[in-house]
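Reopening this ticket.

The earlier resolution said the output was attached, but the attachment link was broken on my side. Pasting everything inline this time so it's all in one place.
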Amino acid sequence: MSEQEEKEIDYISYLSRIWNREDLAKQISILDKEFYLRYNEFMDSPNYSTHEKEQHQIRFNSFFHKRWEFIGKCAATTSLTNKFENQLTHEETIIYKQINELVSNFRENIKKI
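Inline output:
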């Protein structure tokens, strides 16, 4: 088995652990800061069939939607804490801050009416 194949198997195990942990705990897990980049590299790998990639994509979409729903609800109601920021990827931190700013601006505009 090549080093690349070992990395990909490790990554499949990593994805499965993350998905299972979040399903069981009903809260978000701490992800590798480059989680989405690594996921895209996995999906671009020629070592998996289209069917295998489609199965992972279906599972990832479910994971993604649950995670973003939780992040969006938090961002709409509270400022980002250091503890919570440490659980987010770089991309998620950007989105959290954008949602939080939009909601804050909306609240300020409502107060002016």
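Reporter confirms the inline version is readable. The two ends are 66 Å apart (CA to CA). Helices lie at 3-25, 35-44, 50-77, 82-85, 90-112.
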